[in-house]
Amino acid sequence: MTGVGESVTDPYLWLEEVTSDAALDWAREHNEVAIGRFAASDRFRDLESRILAMLDTDTRIAYPGRRGSWLYNFWRDGAHPKGLWRRTSFAEYAKDDPAWEILIDLDELAASEDENWVWGGASVLRPEQSRALLSLSRGGSDAKVVREFDIESKTFVAPEDGGFFLPEAKSDMHWIDIDTLYVGTDFGPGSLTDSGYPRITKRWRRGTPLTEAETVFEGETGDVAVSAAYDHTPGYERHFVGRSTDFFNSEEYLLADDGALRRIETPTDASVSIYKDWMTVRLKSPWEVNGTTYPAGALIGADFGEFMAGSRDFDLLFTPDEHTALHGRGWTENHLLLVTLEDVQTKLYVLTPGPDGWTREPLADAPPMATTSVMNLDPLEGGDEFMLSTSGFTRPATLMTGSVGGPTEVLKTEPEFFDAAGVVTEQFFAESDDGTMIPYFVIRHRDQVGKPGPTIMSGYGGFEVSRTPAYSGAFGMGWLERGGTWVMTNLRGGGEYGPQWHTSVLKANRHKVYEDFSSIAKDLVARGITTHDRLGAVGGSNGGLLMGVMLTRYPELFGAIVCQVPLLDMKRYHLLLAGASWVAEYGDPEKPEEWEFLSKYSPYQNTRTDVKYPPLLLTTSTKDDRVHPGHARKMAALLDSEGHRYWYYENIEGGHGGAADNKQSAFQAALIYEFFTDMLM
Question: Which residue from 102, 416, 432, 677 could staple onto 519, CB 3.0 to 4.6 Å apart?
Answer without folding.
Answer: 432
